[in-house]
Amino acid sequence: MAIITYLTSLHRGASSLPRMYWLLRCRGTKLLQYTLGLFAMFSLVAPQGSFPKMENIGAHRSVSVAPPGATCGVLERSAFCRPARAPDDLVTCSQQFCVQECPYRSSTPSHADLLAAYLGGCPAGDKQDLHPGAAAGSASFAFRNQTACLASPSAPTLGPDGSFTLTLWLKLEEATVMTVFEKSTMDRLVFRLSTSEAEVQLHYGVQDGQTFSVSMSTAGRLTVGLWAHLALQVHSVAVSLFVNGQEEDSTALETQTLVYPVADVPSGSGAWIGRSSNGSSPFIGLMQDFRFYPQTLTNREIEEVYSGTLPRLYAQVACRCPPSHPRVHPLLERYCIANGANDTTDNRVLRLNPDAHPLHYINDGDMGTTWVSSVLSTQEDLDRGVTITIDLEGGEYQVFYVILQFRSALPEAVRIQRRASRTEVWSDWQYLARNCSIYGMMNDGPLDRPDSVNCLRFPSYVPHTGGNITFSVLTPQPHLRPGYNDFYNSAALQDFVRATHVRILLQGQHYTQDATVPLGHRYYAVDEMTISGRCDCRGHADVCDTSVSPYRCTCLPESHTQGAHCERCAPLFNDKPFRAGEPAHANHCRPCRCHGHASSCHYDASVDPHPLEHPRGGGGVCDHCGHHTAGRNCEQCQSLFYRELGASPWAEDVCKPCECNSAGTVNGSLECDQRSPHRARPQKLPYPLAGPREVFQTWDE
């Protein structure tokens, strides 16, 4: 409960400012920014700092282990003893295997190029009009109902249960139904693929000779005059259509169920591209890269054919789904499901070997998986231990907890380190040990400074399995870190929690070093490693975009901050120095009073009556005042310019030229007197001077 309360206090967000809409009758976006800035300053709602939510920032990040072969089954199939639940279990060994090989295929199968037979022949090749991303020197083929092109390529053979996949690039020149491909005999149809702008049709024959049809909508994806990639995936009675790769959720565009599987005729059949066997419904348009696979490609493989890149998965990316379940489960990527199935379906199969325990299982966010190290068969192996490193990727985060949930017995010693963005040097974060003398440190030593590092002693009893190691960066019991309850005012503590990488060294092991314990019990098994933290947005954002690297905070508009971490004030909001937001104080950047005549300002403490207080005073000085204005706030006119009585200080032409006649002024001066209204420079003339109206005034608001 204490952990939850503390996390809540760290994450307490800003109160939402009330939304108000009003008509601004003044011109210019600078005036709008200024007005909104003042509203944010003087709002009756007490603003609070804003922070991104706490999350497991180590999930699905790059992870490595040293020594490199420290994961079971990497080099070859291996075995280990099942974790001991009680002392008696340690004297026996219930063997379990570790197998990392993919249960299905690990590469995309080969295909037949259906257009290869036309190279140098008919229809004509076109090396100018090619599909997007086509290789240099390749060619498309134009089908325009040429009656001379009657030759057909050899008919491909379907896979088991009528399984096959067709993929091609095509460019329609008509919107009507046209034949793309047909395989048939003189008296029997195997299948025919037709398309139009609106739909794709599959006509197919079954074992008893009957013919059926199924139609699938293209959902506006096929347009006359535009290239598109088409893929038809068939397995047993399931047929799926893909247009331009898989959908965003890795599904097919549409999936239908056939009455029976497609029945192949291995011999005596022919194939026709761009027309049916009787010449009807010819294809009018271009085709390129027409492939036939005698297997059912998975959704990821279809995306690879389309884009050239196999979609990334976190664990064992090479392992494919089986043809019967070609889609990777969107939440648990070790499973595969069928196209058209709901994400919650129980009809799922494992993509990975059930005895696989790869390193990526350590931070895949799935407590049902376990990373298992290789067996540490010698005392030297135990003393050297295993080092796990996680690259948080994308920038420097604020880390508050590191938690390891073990399936095996706990190590005897743990060293946790971090690396920050400003250095390549690893810094110690925390030691934990059965006896801290292994590190030359005292047990549960004091923490004298916010960034002190001590060694915490393990309890006298630790479980044989299912134990965990929790490192609380700010509150490592029994000694609370100095400044933990004033985190936002401790620069040293804020720096102490920042990390780009986390490294953990595991050494020794409880219970397994007795001579009666089989060596197969000497390994580390971790269900999950959790790194709890958040983006560092300096208290001025509650959302950050981690899809880009480095991550970028979405600075709240009312904070008037900029930068990837909202770490500086916007150019016109430097009336006070930048200050990070806190749970009780938003510390928004404050606007300078430049009246729309400057694009930036800077802070000068010498002109701030309250330099130590953020809400009061102000020391903003406008930079490079324009429109002939001058002064700290662009509130004066430059020499030889004056302000008319009643003119708005926001007006672009507020300062007008004096236009004095030198013949009628003292010493030929052309200056106007801006210090009082209706008065030019003191002058003694024997005759009246024709000149501008005497409407000068000082710039007091």
Quick synopsis:
6% of the residues lie in helices and 27% in strands.
Low-pLDDT parts are 1-9, 11-46, 675-701
Integer average pLDDT: 87
> CATH superfamily membership of the domain at 58-101 and 362-535, which one?
Galactose-binding domain-like
Range of strand content: 25-35%
Tell me the structural class: mainly beta
Distance between the termini: 56 Å
Using the coordinates above, name the CATH class of the domain at 58-101 and 362-535: Mainly Beta
Structural shape: flat
Could you estimate the helical fraction of the residues in percent? under 10%
The main pleated sheet reads as:
8 strands, antiparallel
SS summary, helix count: 5
CATH architecture of the domain at 58-101 and 362-535: Sandwich
Oligomeric form of this entry? single chain
The count of β-strands is 40
CATH topology term of the domain at 58-101 and 362-535:
Jelly Rolls
How would you describe this structure to a colleague?
This protein is mainly beta. Among the domains are: 58-101 and 362-535, Jelly Rolls (Sandwich), CATH 2.60.120.260; 112-307, Sandwich (Jelly Rolls), CATH 2.60.120. The strands form eleven sheets. Strands 5, 6, 7, 8, 13, 14, 15 and 17 form an eight-stranded antiparallel beta sheet that branches. Strands 1, 21, 23, 27, 28 and 30 form a six-stranded antiparallel beta sheet that branches. A six-stranded mixed beta sheet has the order 2-22-29-24-25-26. Strand 37 (629-630) and strand 38 (636-637) form a beta hairpin. It is flat, with a radius of gyration of 37 Å. 39% of the residues are buried. Residues 1-9, 11-46 and 675-701 have low confidence and may be disordered.
